[in-house]
Automatic annotation (TrEMBL):
Gene3D superfamilies: ADP-ribosylation/Crystallin J1
InterPro entries, A to Z: ADP-ribosylglycohydrolase, Ribosyl_crysJ1, Ribosyl_crysJ1_sf
Note on cofactor: Binds 2 magnesium ions per subunit.
Upper classification of the organism: Eukaryota, Metazoa, Spiralia, Gnathifera, Rotifera
Keyword Metal-binding annotated: yes
Annotated positions binding Mg(2+): T82, D83, D84, D322, D324, T325
Cytoplasm keyword on record: no
Protein name: ADP-ribosylglycohydrolase
Species this chain originates from: Rotaria sordida
């Protein structure tokens, strides 16, 4: 299984990824359906929302989205998706190519999307968020410095390195390229491949969910939103029922998945059920670019529209504003919970490059299992909070496969690490707190809508977008 070179300009629907060996057993087939559901859910939500991206709620009250349609800010065809799906597929392609979590390679692939349109639905990067772009620009700068240090003349040569190569030859290289205080939804929108690859080891999945954010979005709120949401996706894949996923005590009941690093208080507020408001928009639920708003909005749609992927994703979109991303975040969890079979077939039929997305799901399932076997990883955690009265639509129970226990001391986190995770440089783990704990106050608050007016800092971030209307302010500010 190979992805094409970014210079080959192969469009996603032209990539012949092929399929891994067939999964055996009912349980495996159910997991695969959930994994494909999460990726398809992300892409379907993205594509549905793209036609009205940046439209306010008031517009969508009058003109609600009900189907896959063309148009919107980017003039896409019905079924084409945006940066959310492109970046998620870049992340998936890194996991599948490197067969491990390699944040350096992830940034290389995001750069390929940014510079060469790698895994874009149009062949071009047309909608990069400002935070992501700033982080990738800094990454490019650091790569150029690295080329000088290593006497490399060709960018392809520096792109081929792994994080282990880089850290062994230049120990001070920092792959986390976010400026302080970056708390947009741009990492949460692309998260799914990490929990889909590592769901068999929940503490590892949660840790890497956070690490996947830090490369571009270093604020603790963005990192912890990904850790919490990654845990929910893991729980959904493992067959936990809806009542568990929306339980206000999910975090405390799964605390052993999170290690010693507590969630940020704003994420804790959401985990404690802040999103459980029947009158969503009227009670302050917003589909905005601030990661706390985005997480709350996606969970509101999941909770409020229990039993229907279709109703939930449309509700997420019809909140307005960052419609595609709210829906893409919703779709990651809802797709994992409901499974690919429960996403409306006519939407999946219209989805651009749906076969590639399905195949990537199959390979994440296959290679994630291989990773656990090859690295002698425990597949289970000590968590035992799965209820036997499983109301999951796929009706499988995570407790069926729990046989070994992983203690928190075995897991590498910001306080400790061990070398049983052979292909991931532990120094990255140690660096991570520096990003989230650096003096954030000034710039973090400048990114916090409760403390400032986000619209005041937008204009400098629009030049890279093909269109430059005021609708793009939301994406520019937070993405
Ligand atoms: Mg988008």
């Amino acid at each position: 299984m190979n992805f094409p070179s970014p210079h080959a300009r192969v469009l996603p629907h032209q990539i012949p990824l092929g399929k891994p060996p067939e999964s055996r057993g009912t349980e495996e087939a159910k997991q695969l359906n959930c994994i494909q559901g999460s990726l398809l859910g992300l892409a379907v939500g993205d594509a549905l929302g793209a036609s009205v991206e940046f439209r306010p709620h008031q517009y969508l009250v009058v003109h609600p989205v009900k189907k896959m349609q063309s148009g919107g800010t980017w003039g896409l065809k019905a079924g084409q998706w945006t940066d959310d799906t492109s970046m998620a597929l870049c992340l998936a392609s890194s996991l599948l190519t490197m067969k491990t979590f390699d944040p350096y390679n992830q940034m290389v692939r995001y750069k390929w999307w940014y510079k060469h349109g790698f895994l874009s639905a149009t062949g071009h990067c047309f909608d990069i968020g400002s935070t992501t772009r700033q982080s990738l620009d800094l990454f490019c700068h650091r790569q150029k410095e690295l080329m000088k240090v290593l006497s490399l003349r060709n960018e392809n040569d520096v792109d081929k390195l792994s994080i282990i190569d880089v850290k062994s030859r230049q120990p001070t290289f920092d792959v986390n390229c976010s400026k302080p205080g970056k708390a947009g939804n741009g990492a949460l929108m692309r998260l799914a491949p990490v929990p889909l690859f590592y769901f068999r080891n929940p503490p590892l999945a949660v840790e890497y969910s956070g690490a996947s954010a830090r490369v571009t979005h270093g604020d603790k709120k963005a990192v912890d939103a990904c850790r919490y949401y990654g845990a929910l996706i893991v729980a959904a894949i493992r067959g936990e029922p809806f009542e568990n996923l929306t339980n206000k005590s999910f975090y405390t009941e799964h605390k052993d998945w999170f290690g010693s690093d507590d969630l940020h208080e704003e994420v804790l507020r959401i985990a404690a059920g802040s999103y459980q408001k029947n009158d969503g928009y009227d009670k302050g639920i917003r589909g905005k670019g601030y990661v706390i708003d985005a997480l709350e909005a996606a969970l509101w749609a999941f909770w409020k529209y229990k039993g229907s992927f279709k109703d939930g994703v449309l509700a997420a979109i019809n909140l307005g504003d960052d419609t595609d991303t709210t829906a893409a975040i919703y779709g990651q969890l809802a797709g994992a919970y409901y499974g690919a079979d429960n996403i409306p077939a006519d939407w999946v039929d219209k989805l651009y490059a749906k076969e590639l997305i399905r195949d990537i799901g199959s390979w994440l399932h296959y290679e994630g299992d291989s990773f656990m076997l090859e690295n002698n990883q425990p597949k289970e955690s000590s968590h035992q909070q799965v209820h036997s009265t499983d109301k999951h639509p796929n009706n499988h129970n995570a407790s069926e496969s729990m046989s070994t226990v992983m203690t928190s001391s075995q897991f590498p986190n910001s306080d400790s690490h061990n070398t049983t995770y052979p292909t991931y440089d532990p120094s990255i783990q140690q660096q991570a707190p520096k990003q989230s704990n650096t003096p954030l106050n000034i710039s973090e608050h400048s990114n916090d809508p409760s403390l400032s007016n986000p619209s005041s800092t937008n204009s400098q971030n629009l030049h890279n977008n093909p269109k430059s209307n005021s609708d793009q302010i939301g994406k520019s500010e937070w993405g």
